[in-house]
Amino acid sequence: MSDKDESEALLEAAPDGVVVVDDARVFIDANPAACHLLGMARSELLGRRFDQFVDPALDLDSAWATFLRAGEQRDELRVIRPDGVVLEIEYSATARFVEGRHLAILRAPSRRRHRERLRMREMETLLALSRALSATLDPTETMRRVAREIAHAVGADMVGAYLADAAHEFLTPVAGYHVPREMLDSFRRIPIPIKRHLAIEDAWAQRHAVWTDDMAADPRVDRASYEQFPHQSDLFVPIRIKDRAVGGFFVVWWHKRRSFADDEVQLVQAISDLAGIFLENAQLYRATAEANRAKDEFLATLSHELRNPLGAISTAVTVLERRGASDEGAVRLHQIIRRQAKHLARLVDDLLDVARATAGKIALVRQPLDLAELAAVCVRSLQDSGKMRAHRVTFRAESVTVNADATRLAQVITNMLENALKFTPAGGSVDVDIVREGKDAVLQVTDTGVGIAPEMLSRVFDLFAQAQQTMDRSTGGLGVGLTLSRRLVEMHGGTIVAASEGSGRGAQFTVRLPVEVEMVSLPPSFPLGSDPSRRVLIIEDNDDAREALRLLLESLGHQVTEADDGTRGLALALDRSPDVVLIDLGLPGLTGYEVARAIRESTIGKGMTLIAVTGYGQLAARRRSKEEGFDAHLVKPVSQALLSNLIGSAA
Asked: Which of 436, 384, 374, 448 is nearest to 411 (CA)?
């Protein structure tokens, strides 16, 4: 045997594939192992271009140029055979081993390595699909994205996504990928039978994928469906939710005969199973959203319907009161009816506002306003109503401007205050603080009440959420006020959070709103009104500040006396017993803290309203002012409306 014959015999017997291509990448020689790998007889392979076996997505020209420059190359390559089988092969190539000729040795990876690659590919595909599906809760979009991923994974011409009808007799299209334009109408309106289509019926019953590479000749194919959509190869994979088939994907090749390896079928089935999970989540979300919408509509309808009888009751009580009552009992009954009718009206308004806020139907009328002034108005309103009689309420504020709807923001503040009063036993205290922290205006309402259990903190703003009630439900309610408050605060671009150290340890609610940074002149949003005249003592060591404050208060009708140091101020307070004492903290003689403490310790000082008017706005100063007996802590400069409201609300 000659050396040439021996070399040819070795190539014929070699377990690895050996191919030779020319400069045009045309096969000019191949051994049996190479022909087996590429799925073609030698006579069919020779004369074909190598390009026909490579994934079209690969930039083969650039890769070929790199190979020629390097002279040799070792790597892995994805090969697509004419029968549709996809292989990942290893190769070692030498450029120009003979002039104009290029040699490559091809090797299929070991079974173990092949399985590892398949598992890695499956994981990468499913991870990418999970990320894509997590961005949508729409069932149709979910199906469309899965159809696209299946098409990319197996190189399909088209993928149709179908769901079964209620009777599980037909599959109706809901989404598709690469559906030809001329077939769109038929695709959308023609369902595919389940029970007369043997292949689908088998897949439906056994919950596994089925495929054929010869639709025309396969006896399992429904002829009517095939005539509507004639194509060569098809894979159908069912969509399963909790192991129950609910739909499926048709994977189509129009003209290519496409066979499937087991790992490809497993990959497509895994993709479809993942689709089932996300489809179920999307359906649950839609059902929940629909239930919430129905609930909101019910609340809105209920609120509207309740207003009619409430209006009639209120009108009837007014008529009875105008006619007069002959005995004290009737007058008392009228007052009870009116009070309870107002309470019901408030509940109805809250229900309606929650429904409107949830539906996005509340429009804010925003303007720059002083948060401290608005909070003072809310405090005074509750004080005038008598709701604060059993509690000690401390107000500490500095002027800070926000861009807000005064009516809606007052609704939030009032709700926070009423909650604090309702859940704080008589004799407890409620603190109201307004400060500026960087770009935030911060409003805090802190109480010494019943507190919030740890398990309730995360749900305290949820609609109808309530902690466990005692038998008398003395702190009851519908649990809608905080839900509404959160929505209104969020509409202003702010946040509201609750904090508590647990049951019996009080609670703190904090609202943060963006500060209005543009310089604006604030409108007189909160009219001062005509308050009764109060006897006011000013203790301030700055002559100009003291005189300006005296002139302001006298212009508002109050009787004002003044002192320029702590010692004289204390003496005037004990001698004249004013209704309100405005005290600067940094006084000569006695400090403002010492003056307040001495007044509170006196027999006549318990009922005075003490207001700190100071440049000290730090937390420590605010905390100490409360400890020393101040009712309010105002940081200079103090707005006229804020000060007037606090003086007007003095007992």
From this structure: 374
